[in-house]
Design brief:
Layout: H1 11-21, H2 49-66, H3 69-76, H4 80-94, E1 99-102, E2 105-108, H5 110-136, E3 143-148, H6 156-167, E4 172-177, H7 180-188, E5 194-197, E6 206-215, E7 217-221, E8 231-233, E9 241-245, H8 250-261, E10 267-272, H9 275-283, E11 289-291, E12 301-308, E13 312-320, H10 327-337
Parallel strand pairs: 3-4, 3-5, 8-12, 9-10
Antiparallel strand pairs: 1-2, 5-13, 6-13, 7-11, 7-12
Helix pairs in contact: 2-3, 2-4, 2-5, 3-4
Length: 347
């Protein structure tokens, strides 16, 4: 039984969709509009296909599987008349018949069968996405997206995770190791739940809690004029060449501030991205640096305690204000806050 093509029932929406799909020379291109790259976000404006169709896709799939509106309505727990109207609107929006009516039974048209394949894949993706976020929020086996500084990686963070997982052995972690400003950006973008950073940020959209402080040392080559000392005033290094982290790193900002308090602006010869590289540059005689204690001793260097100004960096945990916590994130946040004053390994 042949079935005539259903005319477009929503001329406004359909014509506007056509204009977006086939722009003229004055609308940004010739011929068909370029397709969005795979995985790109879809703009859900009120006239887009997702906004028009998404609420009715599961209803369409249920009717297609049952081949009967009444049985599908019972399965969905909705009135048969409501489901019939939803199908009619779906076909009108698309401008094509999805079903051939044979009495009370329905059969998919060729177009309907092609549409069903795509709809079932889309619904499957929605199902998987829902299960993933539910799994991430599971109190016992959920996931925490946790950011921390490079210098926290060798000892501090592994020790924290070991202690936390002793009580929460199935909680999973997505770990991001980067510098302070990038970490705050990812926190604001919703890519991180919590971050361990220094200095402790102060911003109206963030909540930050100080957890500990870490001494900073003036690191010099072993043959340096100050290497035989145990303590030094930072002003004694005013004429030295410094190696530092790049601008944007919290430790770079602290270095500049401490040198300013000591009455000089550091002459920077090399800028790096992680402290072990800086230690290598110092050992090679290319400058001095203000650094936290290393996880492992490196030959060729002397670490001098700085007596003036007080050389420390405050380390804290930060999160986005007003952002609701899943149970595993809340548990890890409580754990971190319980470590105030004993976050860092003590020598």
């Amino acid at each position: 039984m042949e079935h005539e093509q259903r005319p477009v029932g929503r001329e406004g929406a359909h014509s506007r969709r056509k204009e977006r799909a086939d722009p003229g020379p004055g609308n940004g291109g010739e011929g068909a509009a370029p397709e969005a790259p795979p995985g790109s976000a879809v703009a859900l404006d009120p006239e887009s296909w997702p906004a028009l169709l998404a609420p009715r896709l599961a209803q369409f799939a249920a009717v297609a599987r049952a081949e009967h509106v009444t049985r599908a309505a019972e399965e969905l727990g909705m009135p048969q008349s409501t489901l019939s109207r939803a199908l009619a609107r779906l076909e009108a929006d698309l401008g094509i018949s999805l079903f051939a009516r044979r009495g009370r039974a329905l059969a998919l048209t060729v177009a309907g069968r092609a549409f069903l394949g795509s709809v079932e894949r889309a619904l499957g993706e929605v199902e998987r996405a829902a299960e993933e976020v539910r799994a991430d929020a599971d109190p016992a086996a959920g996931k925490v997206a946790f950011g921390f500084l490079h210098t926290m990686g060798p000892e501090t963070v592994p020790g924290l995770l070991r202690a936390f997982r002793a009580e929460h052995p199935r909680v999973r972690f997505s770990l991001v190791q980067t510098y302070g400003e990038a970490m705050i950006e990812r926190l604001r973008a919703g890519e991180l739940d919590l971050c361990l950073t220094a200095p402790v940020p102060a911003a109206p959209d963030l909540v930050a809690r100080r957890l500990d402080e870490q001494r900073l040392f003036l690191v010099v080559p072993e043959d340096h004029r100050l290497a035989g000392r145990r303590r030094v005033r930072l002003a004694e290094a005013a004429e030295e060449t410094f190696v530092t982290l790049e601008p944007g790193y919290g430790l770079r900002r602290i270095t500049d501030e401490l040198c300013g308090q000591a009455g000089f602006r550091p002459r920077v010869a090399f800028e790096g991205e992680e402290t072990e590289t800086l230690r290598g540059l110092v050992a090679a005689g290319l400058g001095v640096a203000l650094l936290p204690p290393p996880a492992f001793a490196r030959p060729g260097l002397a670490d001098l305690a700085v007596t003036a100004p007080r050389a420390v960096r405050e380390i804290g945990v930060a999160w986005l204000d007003g952002h609701p916590d899943t149970p595993p994130v809340a548990a890890f946040k409580r754990f971190l806050l319980s470590r105030r004053g004993r976050l860092l390994p003590r020598s």
